[in-house]
Write a structure and sequence with these properties.
Mean pLDDT: 92
Bound molecules: zinc ion
Radius of gyration: 13 Å
Structural class: alpha+beta
Oligomer: single chain
């Protein structure tokens, strides 16, 4: 099984991450994985993904787990920040 960072990076490189909402303290990303979409949100520094992987593992150890969708969203966020600083 590939690691989640690499999987997330692939999703990002495949343009599977869409920005639904973008404010410094409130972001929503939609991550497409095959035929499914997962919403990844960030509110005041708290990240969340609605997938089963995240829901299950985050319950076991809150705040310590990033699923591949969340990783993908953070790679996308880097793009947004790079662009905004340059602009
Ligand atoms: Zn997820």
């Amino acid at each position: 099984m590939a690691d989640r960072i690499t999987e997330g990076y692939k999703l990002y490189k495949d343009n599977a991450v869409f920005v639904e909402h973008y404010e410094p303290n409130h972001m929503i990303f939609k991550v497409k994985n095959k035929n499914d979409f997962y919403l990844v949100s960030m509110i005041y520094g708290y990240w969340n993904c609605e997938c089963a992987d995240y829901t299950y593992r985050n319950q076991r150890e809150p705040g310590s787990f990033y699923c591949k969708h969340l990783q993908a969203a953070q790679f996308k966020l880097l793009d947004l920040l790079n662009n905004s600083v340059k602009g």
